[in-house]
């Protein structure tokens, strides 16, 4: 099996390669789009390294994942979801093909481990279920990490003292990452269905009713976090709920945290004169709080 903690060295190597690319693109002071050249490129390559997706196939995932993730937007059931349907069919077909390859020619990757574990299971998943798990791992592995990296960089650029602290104390990267997740959660809300009658405060919720959970608001709850609107990387007992909780806790949470903890210190050390070029552009989404571009 491949464990997330064992990926630290390979993540650092991937980050170093991408930083070389940023330096090349920015030679002579040219602005570089951080979101396209780093925030997307790093997590998609990391999760695809883990799964065992061929490098030549990875760039095409951005459109497919973005289209598929549109179903998480509030009111999506009332919009045209044909692009999401096409993306789901494309990704399902792609991973079904990879699983067939791994059965014929096993490799040292997560897809092979999934096939072997499923084939040995007393109650194995059907082919469609196995493929669906791979697609979820892909989505969980990089869609929200893109937002975390972009949001985190902007928080640092807007706060020179915090940026200088992290550059001087890279060992604080874990604490900085938690505060980035709390202050600018990449996913602002999620949905749950009540399995039985319950009460939320003074409001009763009947069994089977849907509930929208505002994670971004909970992360700024003054009853839980002192001075919640202040970015404070040394905040004690900082436990944001940006990745959800319970049975639906985000599959990619540990990987996303590790990527941010590795990436930010290396980025700040490599580019001590880094500064914002132009006006950053937000992604036009309600649920996913992220930047579409930073630097161009």
Blueprint (SSEs and pairs):
Blueprint: H1 8-25, H2 34-39, H3 41-51, H4 61-69, H5 82-104, H6 110-120, H7 127-157, H8 160-168, H9 173-183, E1 189-193, E2 198-200, E3 203-205, E4 210-214, H10 215-218, H11 253-270, E5 281-282, E6 291-293
Antiparallel strand pairs: 1-4, 2-3, 5-6
Helix pairs in contact: 1-3, 1-11, 3-7, 4-5, 5-6, 5-7, 7-11, 9-11
Structural write-up:
The protein is mainly alpha-helical. Helix content is 51%, strand content 7%. It is built from eleven helices and six strands. The strands form three sheets. A two-stranded antiparallel ribbon has the order 1-4. A two-stranded antiparallel ribbon has the order 2-3. It has a two-stranded antiparallel sheet with strand order 5-6. α1 runs antiparallel to α3 and α1 (8-25) packs across α11. The longest helix has 31 residues, at 127-157. The mean pLDDT is 90.
What's this model, at a glance?
The protein is mainly alpha-helical and 296 residues long.
Q: How many strands?
A: 6
Strand content: 5-15%
Helical stretch tally: 11
Report the span from N to C terminus: 41 Å
Give, in order, the helices and strands.
Answer: HHHHHHHHHEEEEHHEE
Overall body shape: globular
CA gyration radius, whole angstroms: 20 Å
The description of the largest β-sheet is: 2 strands, antiparallel
Query: Low-confidence parts lasting 5 or more residues at pLDDT below 50?
Result: none
Structural class of the secondary elements? mainly alpha
